[in-house]
Amino acid sequence: MQTFHTDTIQRPGVLIIDDDVQVCDILAKAIRRMGYAACCAVTLQQGLEKMGTETIDVVFLDVNLPDGNGLSAIDPIQQMPNAPEIIIITGNEDVDGAELAMRSNAWDYISKSESYKKFTFALDRALKYRRQKRHQKSAVSFKRSGIVGESPAVLDCLDKVAKAAKHHFPVVITGETGTGKELFSRAIHANSSRSHAPFLVVDCAALPEHLVESTLFGHVKGAFTGADTSRTGLMKMADKGTLFLDEVGELPMAVQKKFLRAIQEKQFRPIGASHEVKSDFRLICATHRNLEDMVKDGRFREDLYFRLFSMHIHLPPLKSRSNDVAALVHNHLSRKYDGSKGKGVTISEGFLEELKSYDWPGNIRELINTLDLVCSDAGAGDTLFARHLPAPIRAFHVRNKFTASSPAAADPTPSGNPLPFKAYIEKMKHAYLQDLVSAARGDIADCCRRSGLSRSQIYRLMHQYHLKF
Amino acid sequence: MDLILFIHQDGAHQGEALYTKMTQYFGVNSIQAVHTMTALTHILKQPGGRDHKVYVLLAESRHRLQELYCLFTLLDGRRIVLVLPDDTKETISLTHQFYPRFFTYSDTAYDDLCAVLYKMMNHTQTHSSKEGKK
To answer: Most buried in the list A95, A158, A257, B29, measured by CB within 10 Å?
Structure first.
């Protein structure tokens, strides 16, 4: 019952503290159906412990618990770092209790006899409020360092950046090429107590094997052929600052052992030196590879892998945050035309629409390149129309539009390239459910009538395919 | 051309060895050499330079490095390799603000620099072909 369901992209977490196991189960199931993660605790103590170890956004808190009164726990909960929103639930309605809850800034006070909708409505509103609060907070105290976007996936990453900035442990940033891994690394550095010291980039993919060691650790004069002078390595130069290892998966196996020791001990021996040198640097690594697979294949040391993965931030591809495209476009164009008075460009609706519908395999870098190209063709002071866009983007948009409006829209099989049978069936089911919910306008009863499925079958399928009403 | 080589006309003497070595490795046709800040700015303002191009910037003096830093808004997000005049604290401190992918010094033989560039170009091609297959 206490298992917490986590995803690659973390969903909001909800904790139910109630000694009635049946209430816990029913609420948890309903919450999971809404697409959130849910866990339960049957005592106050258990609940407080969970809040210390799990990421909890909202707590449903019962008043009468075996080890204390839920209302008296509101204050201590609100003192916690990243305190969750609290919704009081009770079997015995009591005006004084309700007033006390509201005075203590609880989000709501709900009787267990209320309808299921009352719970889900309160939860949705509390989560919405929390997202807004988080956003406002980050806007005030956080240097974004050029990171643009308000989509939940980006805000979630920024939250992690803010958390990482408060500590000194290693961070691994993963994501497709062009998603901004270096930018997020710089944001961690800029918001950390090390921001006064340098941020150093080591491009592991660019360094030939024979240069990696001397670049990282440095060398003394005469250490090897060609070492005419002593050189300080980047690890020493990063003292008090941040060392950013881009494409860490390319780090040669031969160097990984020495590197692991250096990050553990905070000291290392430059090539040819008789003494070790100390350096207190913070390590951030990035990669587009799957390091876990590399460990399994024996291409990356397991001990180094575990040392690096103290915290993991996965950046979303641009296609999954198409709502940020407009902000990215405006930001780039305003930077591009900053200072050139009256020479800015105007953007048409159609232009933005086509940019949003494209899948951007090269992510933000590709978007920026496209904008530069388009602006160069259109010229300053002009309006950017869809026709200014490169042919592949236009063709993609037309194909998308055609697919969406054609009777065979639900057919996910690219002509001449059939999917495996199981994948095809899964896609068909997903498309069917989307159509069903849309046709029934989110009305579950109508969904049942149209599909011939039972209510529980529909809920199970919606959960399975991560769909919401 | 995927390699942009900046050697200011005032640093032509120091840049000669670098240019010779790079042409030996990559051939004249792969390198676009520029010799003034205006020409460099012009290139940076052209579209499409963020993906495959590598910018090798030789700073024959710290003053030149500072001058180059004034172009940071245009340089940011590009792959930069710096050739530095010295390894003094001030020069190194300014160097880090470019977030270069690699840096070396003008008193070296540039073989290491060319090995890095070779790997960068090769990696880009491999990576681009993978992206294309998606």
So the answer is: A158
ipTM score assigned to the predicted complex: 0.91
Helix (H, G, I), strand (E, B) or coil at A224: coil
Mean pLDDT over A259-283 rounds to: 95
Burial of B46 (0-12, 13-18, 19+ CB in 10 A): exposed
Q: What is the overall mean pLDDT for chain B?
A: 89
> Which pTM was predicted?
0.67
Determine contact, residues A326/A352, Cβ cutoff 8 Å. Answer: yes
- Cβ-defined contact of B109 to A362 (cutoff 8 Å): no
The DSSP-derived string for A136-191 is HHHHHH---TT----SHHHHHHHHHHHHHHTS-S-EEEE-STTS-HHHHHHHHHHT
Domain locations along chain A: 6-136, 152-316, 319-405, 407-469
Chain B residues with beta carbon closer than 8 angstroms to that of A375: 47
Q: Test A369 with B115 for CB contact under 8 angstroms.
A: no
- Between A56-65, A409-418, A429-438, the lowest mean confidence (pLDDT) is in A409-418
Asked whether this chain's domains A6-136 and A407-469 adopt the same fold, the reply is no
d(CA A72, CA A253): 56
* A407-469: CATH class: mainly alpha
Is A184 an 8 Å CB contact of chain B?
no
Pick the CATH number of A152-316 from 1.20.1640.10, 3.20.20.140, 3.50.50.60, 3.40.50.300: 3.40.50.300
Assign domain A6-136 to its CATH superfamily: Response regulator (3.40.50.2300)
**Pairwise CB contact (< 8 Å): A207 & B100:** no
Model confidence pLDDT, tens digit, residues A151-173: 888 988 998 999 999 999 999 99
Distance from CA of B45 to the nearest CA of A (A): 9
Which residues on A lie below 8 Å from B46 (Cβ)?
Answer: 372, 376
In CATH terms, B2-60+67-133 corresponds, of 3.40.50.2300, 3.20.20.30, 2.60.40.420, 3.90.850.10, to 3.40.50.2300
Q: Are A66 and A28 in contact (CB under 8 A)?
A: no
- Decide if B77 and A365 are in contact by the 8 Å CB cutoff: yes
pLDDT tens per residue, range A353-399: 999 999 999 999 999 999 988 888 776 667 888 888 998 898 888 87
User: Would you list the domain boundaries of chain B?
Assistant: 2-60+67-133
Q: Which of A201, A206, A229 sits opposite B116 (nearest CB)?
A: A206
